[in-house]
Amino acid sequence: MEPDQPRGGGGQPPPPPGEAWTALSHLLSGFLLFGGIGWGLDKLLDMRVFTVVGLLAGGVASLYLIYLRYVKS
Questions:
Q1: Is the pTM of this model over 0.90?
Q2: How many angstroms separate the CA atoms of 63 and 66, rounded?
Q3: Nearest to 73 by CA among 22, 17, 12
Q4: CB-CB contact of 31 with 57 (8 Å)
Q5: At what angle do helices 50-66 and 17-45 cross, to 10 degrees?
Q6: Which DSSP symbol is given to 16?
Q7: What residue spans of the chain are helical by DSSP H?
Q8: Which residues span the membrane (predicted)?
């Protein structure tokens, strides 16, 4: 076996470390963006439900984006 070949069963090589930071930034930005929009709607309409809905929608949208980019490709 040559030294630069992986010892595993010939699967895909692990993603570079930068990809993990990119996925984390996608996740955090979804929460912040949609949560911020929900918070703004809460303040504008004097309600308390849109922040929670925005955070949940941002989490789902972020996870879907990460799935499309890294798992499905």
A1: no
A2: 5
A3: 12
A4: no
A5: 160
A6: P
A7: 17-45, 50-66
A8: 20-41, 48-67
CA 35 vs. chain centroid, Å, equals: 14
Polymer length in residues for the chain? 73
Q: How far is CA 60 from the centre of its chain?
A: 8
Cβ atoms within 10 Å, residue 51: 19
Per-residue pLDDT at 7: 60
3-state secondary structure of 12: coil
Dist CA 10 CA 65 (whole Å): 28
Coil, helix or strand at residue 73: coil
